[in-house]
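Appendix B. Raw example, untouched.
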Amino acid sequence: MNDIDAVLFDLDGTLCRHTGDADAAYRAAFERIDAELFGEPADLWAALDGPPDPDDRVGYLGAGLARVAAQRGRGDVDPVELAEALVEQLDEIEVELLPGASAALDAATARGPTGVVTNGPRDRQERKVRALGLDDRVDAVVYAGDLPRRKPHVGPFREGLRALGVSAERALYVGDSLAYDVAGAHNAGIRVAWIRGGAAGGTEEDDGGPDGGSGDYRPDHVLDGIGDLAGLLEET
């Protein structure tokens, strides 16, 4: 890929995964409000509608919890109160780079400037970036949660290109979501390497959850894991 001068990465599920115990946090939230447990974290992640609202995290999680409660006939629980308790339990700093992510970053850095485009706001995602040491490894981070529009809108991708000083035709975007990463990058004119299946481990910061098949989307490259990126960049 000699025509690639810069690489932009998604964050959650692409470069990193959460290592905190989501199940323990979920159960602790119920205990905090003295309510009987219903559902599991996976049920909540599946019930969330699109990417998180950076201005109303409690409302975003509360809507998902309301759906899970309705499915189980638990109208006795206040979903907003439960969401407030859950937010207090979640620890976004408990993250680690996915296997192969460090090698992928090294390969991308060897090619040119690198950046991250994440849908979350700075006040949450910057802690992850620092905990992972990415602030010293990439040239720019775009926090789409603080922009007028988040992925899959083209704004965050164009901001990433601007920050790296590269044209869309000379950039590659790497992400694990078809609906947010592939669709958004293509709309911005950027080639995309899609990581099949995703690996975020389930958090409300994911871009709508992992995708199992490409369907109507047409990523330019399909990777089985982030570790495959180095080989892709070496292809001529």
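End of appendix B.
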